[in-house]
């Protein structure tokens, strides 16, 4: 491409292969920024849970830092985020999909569904935050509504129409980027 003043720019990465390694990172980044805002403003204390790993092999590099060379997940993770808001336990999973019309249930693992069941049973605030990246819409779907859908429909995906009807659209903001606590206040009457 030729720019003014004779500057030429080549785009070598145009036909680059799609890398799915960091799918969901945009949503997680937005949620991490939102949660940091909530913490700094004293609104809530909610954080991303680390995935438990067991280090098998580590070595020291030339700078004297220990570098993990081999590790594995020591146990299945539960949901992505948890914390406290207005004295209530909050637990949620965040997922993105490029699909415009449905959310694949396979994006939520069986052990995560079991975890959601336990949180709902104990009256914790539990939900999914689902972002449809292609249409740029983010929804909050209560855990109980998610479980009811699974029990009733035995399907491989949840249509967006169900999520629009039973969930809540989260409007984009500057800070917090994803103000899901506004929806939590409304749905759980906090």
Structural account:
The structure is a single chain. This protein has 190 residues and is α+β, with helices and mostly antiparallel strands. It has one domain: Trna Endonuclease, Chain: A, domain 1 (3-Layer(aba) Sandwich), CATH 3.40.1350. Strands 1-4-5-7-8-10 form a 6-stranded mixed beta sheet, sandwiched between helices. The protein has a two-stranded antiparallel ribbon with strand order 2-3. Strand 7 and strand 8 form a beta hairpin. The protein is globular, with a radius of gyration of 20 Å. About 8% of the residues have low confidence.
Question: In a few lines, what is going on in this structure?
Answer:
Helix content is 29%, strand content 31%. It has 190 residues and is an alpha+beta fold. The relative contact order is 0.15.
Order of helices and strands: HEEEEEEHEEHEHEH
Provide the CATH top-level class: Alpha Beta
Question: What structural class do you assign from the helix and strand content?
Answer: alpha+beta
Secondary structure tally: strands: 10
- Fraction in beta strands: 25-35%
Count of discrete structural domains: 1
Indicate the topology.
Blueprint: H1 25-40, E1 45-48, E2 53-60, E3 66-73, E4 81-85, E5 88-97, E6 102-104, H2 110-121, E7 125-132, E8 137-142, H3 143-153, E9 157-159, H4 160-166, E10 168-170, H5 180-188
Parallel strand pairs: 5-7
Antiparallel strand pairs: 1-4, 2-3, 4-5, 6-9, 7-8, 8-10
């Amino acid at each position: 491409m030729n720019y003014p003043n004779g500057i030429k720019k080549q785009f070598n990465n145009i036909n680059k292969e799609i890398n799915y390694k960091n799918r969901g990172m945009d949503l997680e980044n937005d949620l991490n920024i939102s949660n940091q805002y909530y913490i700094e403003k004293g609104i809530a204390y909610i954080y991303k849970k680390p995935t438990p790993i067991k280090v098998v092999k580590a070595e020291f590099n030339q700078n004297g830092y220990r570098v993990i060379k081999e590790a594995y997940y020591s146990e299945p993770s539960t949901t992505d985020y948890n914390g406290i808001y207005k004295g209530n336990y909050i637990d949620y999973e965040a997922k993105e999909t490029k699909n415009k019309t449905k959310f694949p249930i396979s994006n939520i693992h069986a052990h995560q569904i079991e975890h959601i069941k336990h949180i709902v049973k104990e009256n914790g605030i539990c939900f999914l935050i689902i972002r449809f990246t292609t249409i740029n819409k983010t929804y909050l779907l209560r855990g109980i509504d998610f479980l009811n859908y699974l029990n009733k429909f035995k399907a491989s995906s949840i249509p967006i129409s169900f999520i629009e009807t039973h969930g809540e659209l989260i409007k984009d903001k500057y800070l917090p980027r994803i103000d899901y606590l506004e929806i939590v206040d409304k749905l759980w009457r906090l």
